[in-house]
Amino acid sequence: MFGFFKKGLARTADAIKTIVPKKKIAISKDELENILLESDVHYDLIEKILNEIPYDEVKRQHIESKLLACFNWTYYDEKEFTAPKVQLIIGVNGAGKTTTIAKLSQKYLNENKKVILGAADTFRAAAIEQLTRWADKIGVPIVATQQGHDPSAVAYDAITSAKAKNFDHVLIDTAGRLHTQTNLANELKKIVRICDKAHSGAPHEKILILDGTQGNSAIDQARAFNEMVDIDAIIITKLDGTAKGGSVFSIAYALEIPIIYIGMGETADDLIAFDKHEFVNDFLDAIFVQEES
Ligand SMILES: Nc1nc2c(ncn2[C@@H]2O[C@H](COP(=O)(O)OP(=O)(O)OP(=O)(O)O)[C@@H](O)[C@H]2O)c(=O)[nH]1
Ligand SMILES: [Mg+2]
After folding, report:
1. In this structure, what is the dihedral angle of CA atoms 182, 187, 188, 190, given to the nearest 10 degrees?
2. Which has the closest alpha carbon to 5: 184, 185, 246?
3. Is 210 helix (H, G, I), strand (E, B) or coil?
4. Given this model, what pLDDT does residue 184 score?
5. pLDDT for 230-261, tens place per residue?
6. Which residues of the chain have pLDDT under 50?
7. What share of the chain is helix, strand, coil (3-state, %, to 5)?
8. Residue 88 is inside which H or E element, if any?
9. 143 and 115 in contact (C-beta within 8 Å)?
10. Lesser CB count within 10 Å: N end or C end of the chain?
């Protein structure tokens, strides 16, 4: 039943091995603190967890409930909408936005849905070509314009085209940006407004892509994006390339925004729907042997 996140947590498990070289039935509080630190859980959360565990012999089930609690408010309640569903993909440079669009497209295609892409990253050279290559590879249409053109117009055209042709999903790529770049923040807000003009209620999801290799430092970044456009959901990418898997707990705990998928590789199939039970279990499997019951 479990094990879907093993690949994404492989390097985190290696880091945990430096604290507990052999899996155990129980660990000490010191070991727990070091494991959580090593896997990049934020120290505020580590302190909270340690305070809530009053015994020095820490067993799997003691930590399990504490880690699951980090996701208490992250249940994702999908809003009602009229098709096509419009998803706006945002985040800093290189976070994995374009690749995640390819992965989501593949997932929807597997569900026999009709998908169209909007290449609204008109800022970075070669961004349009990159998304076009993915569109060709996966076999979905794309609405694009030339570099330097208005990204809002691309979003508008992609949505209008999807409505006319009865598409189920519109995925809109955007340029990487930092919250400090006022012009790009305003551009993003404009894209959001224009989506709603093209299709009332759109974008139905503003999805923030966070680079998992950044660990906890993604939290402040996410807060800034949330202030900018009100993020609906988070996808964490590149978990396969980092030992910072524990940051997923602190990201969920600090932001109160649902994590909906985890990216665990560079191909279109490397996207796993987030499940807190599976994730916590796979994390704890790096520490504990399963107890015979
Ligand atoms: N290992 C791994 N690599 C990933 C994952 N997601 C994306 N990448 C890689 O990260 C790099 C950046 O990905 P992009 O999708 O281009 O990122 P982006 O956010 O669109 O970047 P900009 O458009 O420049 O802002 C690429 O080399 C991807 O192959 C992942 O889950 N795992
Ligand atoms: Mg991109």
Report:
1. 130
2. 246
3. strand
4. 86
5. 999 999 999 999 999 999 999 999 999 999 99
6. none
7. 45, 15, 40
8. strand 85-90
9. no
10. C
Which residue has the least CA distance to atom 7 on ligand 1? 96
User: Among 99, 134, 225, 271, which residue has the most ligand 1 atoms within 8 Å of its CB, making it the best to mutate?
Assistant: 99
CA of 97 to the centre of ligand 1 (A): 6
Strands 169-174 and 259-263: unpaired
What's the 91 CA to ligand 2 centre distance in angstroms? 9
Q: Of the residues 105, 237, 271, which should be mutated to test ligand 1's pocket, given the most ligand atoms within 8 Å of the CB?
A: 237
Residues touching ligand 1 (Cβ under 6 Å) are 91, 93-99, 121, 124, 127, 176, 237-238, 240-241, 263-266, 270
- In the reported structure, the alpha carbon of residue 191 is separated from the centroid of ligand 1 by a whole-number distance in angstroms of 22
What pLDDT does residue 96 have?
A: 98
Rounded distance, CA 155 to CA 181, Å?
21
The ligand that comes nearest to the alpha carbon of residue 8 is 1
C-alpha to C-alpha distance for 51 and 223, rounded to whole angstroms: 26
- Closest among 13, 2, 1, 4 to 245, alpha carbons compared: 13
Tell me the CB-side half-sphere exposure of residue 280, using CA atoms within 13 A. 19
Q: How close is the Cα of 255 to the center of ligand 2, in Å?
A: 24
Answer positive or negative: Cα dihedral of 208, 212, 214, 215.
positive
In single-letter form, the type of residue at position 150 comes to: D
Look at ligand 1, atom 10, and give the residue with the nearest C-alpha.
96
The answer to whether 209 and 218 are in contact (CB under 8 A) is no
pLDDT for the residue 223? 94
